[in-house]
Design goal:
Layout (H helix, E strand, L loop, with lengths): L2 E7 L2 H13 L5 E2 L2 H6 L10 E6 L3 H12 L19 H18 L1 H11 L4 H26 L2
Antiparallel strand pairs: 1-3, 2-3
Length: 151
């Protein structure tokens, strides 16, 4: 019995799915390089991908089936499927500055500095306020540490 290559896949998972579909339809299928590709997936391109082989008598029907489920167009998105996205507003920058203040007062100057640094990309005024607050919280933290140590 001679085998005929009906398709070639770059991805092992895609080749296994196609082979499973063909087996479910009653075809005898062999996935070449399957075990080697599973053990060393980085060599799949060098191996030439993963060819599917079937007996010569089943090749045309199997090739048509593979082409059928390989070349299908994805369904078009409707308005119900799309996620509505609102444009960012000025409230985002104010909320980020408030978060920076809260984090600086709660967890110290480093947390506030991280958030305040990212706010500077949108509004320089918010960034300056965040930096001033961060510096004041850091100085306050140092004063508290010095008082606790008795320096």
């Amino acid at each position: 019995m001679s085998l005929t290559e009906i398709a070639r896949f770059a991805d092992l998972t895609e080749a296994q799915i196609a082979a499973s579909r063909l087996r479910a339809e009653g075809f005898s299928v062999l996935v070449q390089n399957e075990h080697w590709g599973a053990a060393n997936f980085m060599m799949s391109t060098a191996m030439g991908g993963f060819p599917l082989w079937t007996p010569a008598g089943q090749a045309e029907k199997a090739r048509a089936l593979v082409e059928d489920f390989r070349g299908g167009e994805p369904p078009a998105l409707t308005k119900d499927d799309q996620i509505p996205r609102d444009p960012p507003s000025a409230a985002v920058g104010v909320a980020r500055t408030g978060l920076a203040l809260f984090l600086a007062l709660t967890f110290g100057w480093a947390a506030g500095w991280l958030v305040a640094g990212s706010a500077g990309r949108r509004s320089p005024l918010l960034a300056i306020g965040g930096w001033v607050t961060t510096i004041l919280c850091g100085a306050w933290g140092l004063l508290m540490l010095m008082a606790w140590l008795g320096v």
